[in-house]
Design a protein that fits this description.
The complex is a heterodimer. Chain A is of the alpha+beta class. Chain A contains six helices and four strands; from the N terminus they run ααβββααααβ. Chain B folds into two domains: 134 residues, Aspartate Aminotransferase, domain 1 (Alpha-Beta Complex); 256 residues, Aspartate Aminotransferase, domain 2, CATH 3.40.640.10. In chain B, helix 6 packs parallel to helix 7. Classes of the chains: A alpha+beta, B alpha/beta. The interface between A and B is medium-sized, with 21 and 19 residues. Bound molecules: pyridoxal-5'-phosphate. The site of pyridoxal-5'-phosphate has 16 residues of chain B, from helix 4.
């Protein structure tokens, strides 16, 4: 295992120049806050849902390692414009990939594919999942009719 | 007198390993130290020759194992200058030692109107048990802040004690994050002046492995020790106490070994320290502890401290001078121990830790179980390199190289 497996160039690009990183989102529908006390990562994720039930925009903000920040950045691009159910399925595909399974939606994951190698670094899997799990929570929160939710990971 | 680190390293099997063809550079002894061969041998001796339960057998190997277990108690008492071997209670670790005090003293003695004073630099082990007790029995929790120089603010401490309501003081001897060695004599004297009845607990987890410690001389009531940070095995710690405190305290955990008599309607507790050691204790670990104390005393704790003081000076100076590095902790080596927390500009501690692992360098990253302190420092996490007797100046270059590489890697 080398550092290059973990830190692919695509990952570093997202880390240095994150997409959709913003502290606020106009007309946001849901804001979730996820934190991982173990490593001190904090993630604020905001989504706006279109009238037709698709994800109009996803923005994130917070603090964390390169893997967590880059993965969230890649996620915001991969899920934008998707139907909520579809975005949830894509999040599940990513989650399974982080647990060593072959992804089924290579093209849809877009730059998310670059994180496949992270699955070999067990302590970093949670980092890569942080943004995606926050997205899943945001969509589920929206479907419950709520506008905010906060989650603290306990392991 | 000093010791030769290269020779010393040969006694530590783990330090003989290579990672990807590089020498393993272990800079995480504040989390747990490595173990010399003779400590492993002492534990093997128990398993190979004296494997029997203690404090209850009538046959020879059990009697011998018991004698060795009790000898370890006396050995530790001697090593840390305990008031008496009867004031040494074996626990699982320092966390359990603090919980013993929280349950058998604090929760019974403190209540509304009382205050417990702690500090902003505590490890959760010396904070959460008091916080939990405060929630449940309703005393006030106060906390001494730190200064810009990463030391306890003694002026603030005096004010916090001024009303005379502080009945319990809980403070760490050495900070596991900042490395700060606290002025315990001054602080304890101040607390006793404000309230002569104050009970003082010291967290010695980061002191006993690194400094000559004299618990009786400190005049504290309780002092916590954890053996896995002092060249000993995991699974063993101790609460050092004034025997008269222990004798007045009810038990914490109950069951076998800690009683004198049991009938269906009456139980008589054993005397201290046995009253606080319910069930079969970590016996092999006590054998290991005795060997660890012998090992450290042969080196001489004053020599260990002198070695580390010189080394931490070199490390702190080099890290402070390194581009993009901020050190959180005292700069004067005489005021600090070998735990060095730092931040690297543009590199998250987690990424730095992963990068250094690629160089065979082991450091700790995260909040170091000191979240109140992280909040004071205004960070979520730090990187921490920590030194021990087997570290030397040759461990500095791999650390600095890794930091420089991480900076160019992530900042590109
Ligand atoms: C200052 C301090 N206190 C308490 C502890 C807790 O030690 P243990 O986990 O062995 O109980 C540690 C070590 O992690 C420490 O550094």
């Amino acid at each position: 295992m080398s550092m290059e497996d973990l830190y692919q160039e695509i990952i570093l690009d997202h880390y240095r120049k994150p997409h959709n990183r913003a502290p606020t989102l106009d007309d946001e529908d849901v804001h979730v806050h996820h934190s991982n006390p173990l490593c001190g990562d904090e993630m604020d994720l905001r989504i706006r849902v279109d009238d037709d039930g698709t994800l109009d925009q996803v923005v994130f903000d917070g603090e964390g390692c390169s893997i967590s920040q880059a993965s969230a950045s890649a996620m915001t691009i991969a899920v934008a414009g998707r139907e909520l159910k579809d975005a949830l399925e894509l999040a599940e595909d990513f989650r399974l990939m982080m647990h060593g399974e072959e992804p089924t939606r290579l093209d849809d994951l877009q730059d998310g594919i670059a994180f496949q190698g992270v699955a070999r670094f067990p302590v970093r899997v949670k980092c890569a999942l942080l943004g995606w799990m926050a997205l899943r929570d945001a969509i589920e929160t929206y479907e419950r009719g709520a506008s905010a939710h906060s989650v603290t990971y306990d392991d | 007198m000093s010791f030769d680190v290269a020779t010393l390293r040969k006694e530590f099997p783990t330090l003989q390993q290579e990672v990807d063809g590089r020498r393993l550079v272990y800079l995480d002894s504040a989390a747990s130290s490595q173990t010399p061969r003779r400590v492993l041998d002492a534990m093997d001796e128990y398993y190979e020759h004296l494997r029997a339960n203690v404090e209850r057998g009538v046959y020879r190997i059990s009697e011998q194992a018991t004698a060795r277990y009790e000898r370890a108690r006396t050995r530790l008492a001697d090593f840390v200058g305990a008031p008496s071997p009867d004031g040494v209670v074996f626990t699982k670790n320092v966390t359990e030692a603090m919980n013993l005090v929280a349950y058998s003293w604090v929760r019974r003695q403190l209540g509304p109107g009382d205050a417990l004073l702690t500090t902003e630099m505590e490890h959760h082990a010396n904070f959460v048990p008091w916080w939990h007790a405060a929630q449940e029995v309703g005393f006030e929790l106060r906390s001494i802040p730190i200064t810009d120089a990463f030391e306890l603010d003694l002026d603030a401490a005096r004010e916090l004690m001024a009303d005379g309501n502080v009945r319990f003081l809980a403070v760490t001897h050495v900070s596991n994050v900042l490395g700060t060695i606290n002025p315990l004599e001054d602080l304890i004297a101040m607390a006793r002046e404000a309230n002569p009845e104050v009970v003082v607990t010291v967290d010695g987890a980061q002191a006993v492995p690194h400094l000559p410690v004299d618990v009786a001389g400190l005049d504290c009531d309780f002092y916590g020790v954890t053996v896995h940070k002092m060249c000993g095995p995991t699974g063993l710690g101790a609460l050092i106490a004034k025997p008269e405190q222990l004798e007045a305290m009810p038990p914490f955990l109950t069951g076998g070994s800690m009683i004198l008599d049991v009938s269906l309607d009456q139980v008589t507790w054993n005397h201290a320290p046995h009253r606080f050691e319910a069930g079969t204790p970590p016996i092999a670990e006590a054998f290991g502890l005795e060997a660890a104390c012998d090992f450290l005393d042969e080196l001489g704790m004053a020599n260990v401290r002198a070695h580390e003081e010189a080394l931490v000076g070199t490390f702190v100076e080099a890290l402070t001078a390194a581009e993009g590095v901020t050190v959180y902790g005292p700069t004067d080596p005489s005021k600090r121990s070998g735990a060095i927390s730092f931040a690297v500009d543009g590199v998250h501690p987690h990424d730095l830790g992963a990068m250094l692992d690629g160089y065979g360098v082991c450091i700790r990253v995260g909040h170091h179980c000191a979240k109140p302190l992280m909040r004071t420092l205004g960070v979520n996490a730090t990187a921490r390199a920590s030194l021990y007797l087997y570290n030397d100046t040759d461990d500095l270059a791999p650390l600095l190289d890794g930091i420089a590489e991480a900076r160019s890697f992530f900042a590109r």
